[in-house]
Amino acid sequence: MRERDKAILKDLERFRCLSRDDIIKLHFSSIKDGINSANRVLRRLRDRGEVEVITSQAPYIYAAKPSPIKRDSQKIPHYLEIASVYHQMTKLRSPDVFVPEPKYGKGLPEPDAFTIWGKPLFIEVQRNQFTPTVWADKFARYRTLYHRGDITKEPWQNKLAPVFPWLIILTQHRIPVPEALPFRVLQFRSIGELIKA
Predict the structure, then answer these.
(1) Is residue 38 exposed (0-12), middle (13-18) or buried (19+ Cβ within 10 Å)?
(2) How many CB atoms lie within 10 A of CB 142?
(3) Considering the chain, what is the average pLDDT of its residues?
(4) Which fold would CATH assign to domain 3-71?
(5) Domains of the chain by residue range
(6) Would you tell me which of 18, 121, 138, 194 could form a disulfide with 188, CB atoms 3.0–4.6 Å apart?
């Protein structure tokens, strides 16, 4: 298998699913005829049984096989939005680390992404408006993670001066943030707005 094929499969596992255009941005942007090249490679991977194709929208959505998501999953737009945030970041500067939906354990937060982009950040991408109760629960989970101290043991930490990542919420609607949280919470409409802040 070619190195680019392996890299595409790795990104499909990392992001759960990607549109053809996402794959072009990630792996074919430097090629003159990226669309046709991507189509050929994706057709080959599909024919070899390496990827699944979700044809319910155009451009098609691709997932590693066996797919971690159902073809009609309501989370597909959410996964694509996480990939979009990654693309927005890489246009400005590639993150050193970008982990979609990291898991920290039961009862702890599940951010949409953890990234090191100048500094460590948790990112919440809000396509839908949540109730204050849902947000109160999210903030409580982040507070629990902060107080447990597990983050200080992460391999990316500076052992002499460990930090808790800032929580960045990308949303079109202001979210009430509790006072006296032990970590920074910032809200922006987009990555571009975050950079300008």
Answers:
(1) buried
(2) 22
(3) 92
(4) Arc Repressor Mutant, subunit A (1.10.10)
(5) 3-71, 77-196
(6) 194
Token pair 């255009």 in the structure block, residue: 21
Handedness of CA 28, 116, 121, 187 (dihedral sign): negative
Report how far residue 96's alpha carbon sits from residue 117's, in angstroms, rounded to the nearest whole number: 6
Helices 3-15 and 76-92, axial angle in degrees (round to 10): 120
Residues constituting the chain: 197
Could you tell me where the DSSP H helices lie in the chain? Answer: 3-15, 20-27, 34-47, 76-92, 132-148, 191-196
Say if residues 57 and 72 touch (Cβ distance below 8 Å).
no
HEC profile for 146-181?
A: HHHCHHHHCCCCCCCCCCCCEEEEECCCCCCCCCCC
Digit-coded pLDDT (tens) for 128-166: 778 888 899 999 999 999 999 999 999 999 989 999 999
Distance CA 73, CA 150 (A): 32
User: What percent of the chain shows pLDDT beyond 90?
Assistant: 75
The CA-based angle 94-16-173, given to 5 degrees, is 70
95 — pLDDT class (breaks 50, 70, 90): very high
